[in-house]
């Protein structure tokens, strides 16, 4: 779906980017997509939430290792956007209240 994402950029104030944390083989492709989003001029003002999903599944890498592999600290430091990360399980509901809180806070701040 990546090639058509740009048609949704207009008036986008919040961006939720979901990473499948149970499958590190997709990480490099996922990171390229994320870098493309973060460098898009139309999204410079958006608040970004990166969700590490499927944390209920076993994985050979920890979330910290995944963050380090995609150089998340550098990415956050260099991006124009305000970036937050939350670890979730969409299946079990873990972390979803934090996501709702982020949405509420973000939209409150943005007016
Ligand atoms: N265990 C688990 N499964 C999940 C979670 N979130 C989604 N799934 C399941 O993962 C499967 C694929 O869903 P998604 O990953 O959302 O869909 P997708 O991105 O099109 O699929 P992939 O590219 O294959 O990951 C579905 O069967 C979902 O029920 C989660 O947090 N935990």
From TrEMBL:
Which keywords describe this protein according to UniProt?
GTP-binding, Nucleotide-binding
Out of the domains of life, which is the source?
Eukaryota
Quote any Pfam family the record assigns.
Arf
Question: From the Swiss-Prot or TrEMBL record, what is one GO molecular function term?
Answer: GTP binding
Q: What is this protein called?
A: ARF like GTPase 16
Q: Which residues does GTP bind?
A: 53-56
What is the species of this protein?
Moschus moschiferus
């Amino acid at each position: 779906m990546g090639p058509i994402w740009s048609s949704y950029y207009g008036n986008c104030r919040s961006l939720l980017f979901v990473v499948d944390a149970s499958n590190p083989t997709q990480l490099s492709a996922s990171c390229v997509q994320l870098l493309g989003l973060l460098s898009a001029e139309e999204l410079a003002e958006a608040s970004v939430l990166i969700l590490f999903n499927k944390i209920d599944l076993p994985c050979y890498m920890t979330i910290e290792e995944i963050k380090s592999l995609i150089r998340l600290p550098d990415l956050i430091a260099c991006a124009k956007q305000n970036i937050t990360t939350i670890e979730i399980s969409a299946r079990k509901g873990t972390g979803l209240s934090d996501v709702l809180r982020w949405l509420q806070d973000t939209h409150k701040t943005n007016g």
